[in-house]
């Protein structure tokens, strides 16, 4: 019976090639999208689930409570050892400090070789907490001694080729000679640690005394503390006990710490602590994939129910010959199954075809291997069953219940085969999904444009950012600046701690104002820079003057937000007031006030800012260049820089690129929602095209009579199109509040956001309307200009 059903189903599909093609194409795209989203979601859900005790691994984070709450995936340097000594909640506690893009220098038979790598300084317990095994399979990391290191297998090949790396040495940041004592298996892509070289934690003393100390005076965002907790611990109770550390180690600080234990499985999905992706985004992407499938299934249902009238004679004959309802139902399900299987195979092929482009857009490395596992097989089977039931069950029931007498006499109405109301409801659902996705694309794109194109309060175009070594002396730096400025393509130059924005090198610290006895409730962001800082970044001085550079800092500039935070309304009233930054790190009087600028992205409020000429902070050159001669100017900068620092690798990037990188997550979200909006619209248009073909056939006699009675082409085209335009308007009314709610929630993530204008919703409806009219116009016009004599003769 099943074999016979498949044969008949195949013949029916071949007989109606046009409609079969529309159904298969729509479902192919639906399957392809769903598989891509499945791979995307599965990739993110796999993060750090491979560790042996993943359910007991926690990272200790800090909530810094001042006037606002800041979230740091870090702790003070003294926390880890205190936690180990004072409590027995954890089996192992280990610290780790990250450093990105550090210089590694090797000597190969007298030839110097240099490369950059991400570094982690770790305690040996780190490798007992996490399952990052050595090549021999063990976790006994031999880096307890200072200046010892583990390297990943891939990094070992970059450094030493095919030679045995054990006991070989390299120089780190032109400072310490490090010995390789072990080789790690390459780390999975789905892990929070991106380091390629792991050094003993004691080695950190040579590079950063603060982080290798037992201080509780501050937090460096790159210093992490991990713990393998004992089984069945009450995490909330432990966090409550940790509040005692605030009174014990930070009794007079206005920056109140709350130490929080974050489960390993949650780290990747918490954007407060710079997680990889927000969990909400995964849900959104999953629902988009489901909606695409729903749109494709609605196409199938609409076209199938519309054809029910044409297939009524077949059903009537089979019922008269003794077929039962269940046999007719399963016959139609067999047709749906064949279409679904064909579409699934084509969908997998489509997925593989676009996978390289998908990887490029979302910075992934997904491959065909991701499809060869039990999870994917289970997903595909579930997907096939879901689509077959969703698309086939309703039309199958309608066909099976057709009365044979009415079918053979051709007296079936549309209500007997599902009715106009059902099809209209399904079409409206398609339009609602498409309109919501279009509104989402417009709002996300508008917010991105607003964030990137808005006046940030500082110049970012044509500014090259170049790192300078920490050990540079003031005369050497001054000589380098003068030589770079000799090129006519260089317009300005400043040495600084960080650019005004782009969120780089943030340092938030305490501040005392006007000799007040207590520090302020808020933190101040430090932006050290020389006398050219204001001009190079085109900062607007609203009161006072620029500072003078001296041997010691005694003059400084603040921004308008600082003025508001200390309760002053006139910037001139700030001039001459004393401030003390970071417990005496810099003290002096305020000589100028600059207009506010965005020191982070648009998710964050503008911070109080402090700018002063502090050479101890300088680690970058910001060079304003004429882009018309950029190539020659950059070559000049590289030549002068390399002559000054022959032991370092010259690297640069543009400030506007750094700003754009802050919105990579939103850019990828826009790409995804834009792509799938287009697909949803295309799939919906396929269904509309199929319906208009059927609709025109059903209206043939009516159109012929109207034309004989004098109706013009415009009237007849309007007759065909009016129903669809009404459905789009209804869909727009339904979609508007849905889209407004979700996009308003999304925009709440931004402190500075674009408004949800009314025209966005009108434009989305207009886009759908235009695309729909374009889809059906050819068939509508063809029917309107047809010879009415032929139409009536056929009827």
From TrEMBL:
Residues 287-403, 675-788 form the ABC3 transporter permease C-terminal domain. InterPro entries: ABC3_permease_C, MacB_PCD, Macrolide_Exporter_MacB. Pfam families: FtsX, MacB_PCD. Keywords: Cell membrane, Membrane, Transmembrane, Transmembrane helix. Residues 20-243, 432-613 form the MacB-like periplasmic core domain. It is found in: Cell membrane. It comes from the Bacteria. GO terms for molecular function: transmembrane transporter activity. It is a multi-pass membrane protein. The chain crosses the membrane at residues 21-43, 282-303, 328-356, 376-404, 425-444, 669-697, 724-743, 758-781. One of its GO terms (cellular component) is plasma membrane. This is FtsX-like permease family protein. It comes from Flagellimonas pelagia.
